[in-house]
Amino acid sequence: MWLGLPEPTHNFYDILIGFWIFLFGLGSLYLATTKQYDKTFLFVSAFGKLSFFVLVTLYFFRGEAGLLAFVGSSLDAAIAVVFLA
Predict the structure, then answer these.
(1) Who contacts 1 (Cβ-Cβ below 8 Å, separation ≥6)?
(2) Measuring CA to CA, which residue among 25, 80, 24 is closest to residue 52?
(3) Consecutive 10-residue runs of the chain (85 residues): their mean pLDDT?
(4) Fewer Cβ close by (within 10 Å): the C or N end of the chain?
């Protein structure tokens, strides 16, 4: 359990999710460098970050995720609030 997260079931899903996160990171970098603010992209990004926080929180309270994962995911919740603001 690296960083307190549950063990992955198959490498395919890790790669797929990692690729999505990478693409959102590139999209965020593009918006930051061009100073364009696409509301739809920010909305989707905010809810993606919030969904990660909620999922980790649920797993934490069920005892399936560690404290480090819970604390680390709270940064995602803070970034989501910034995106929504």
Answers:
(1) 7, 66
(2) 80
(3) 65 78 82 81 86 91 89 90 84
(4) C
Look up tokens 């690729």; give the residue.
Answer: 19
Measure Cα distances from 62 to 6, 55, 56, 65 in Å.
11, 11, 10, 8
CA 48, 14, 69, 66 torsion-angle sign: positive
Cα separation, 42 vs 74, in Å, equals 18
Q: pTM of this prediction? A: 0.68
Confidence (pLDDT) at 54: 93
Q: H-type helices in the chain, by residue range?
A: 11-34, 39-61, 67-84
Cβ atoms of 67 and 53 closer than 8 Å: no
75, burial (CB in 10 Å: exposed 0-12, middle 13-18, buried 19+)? exposed
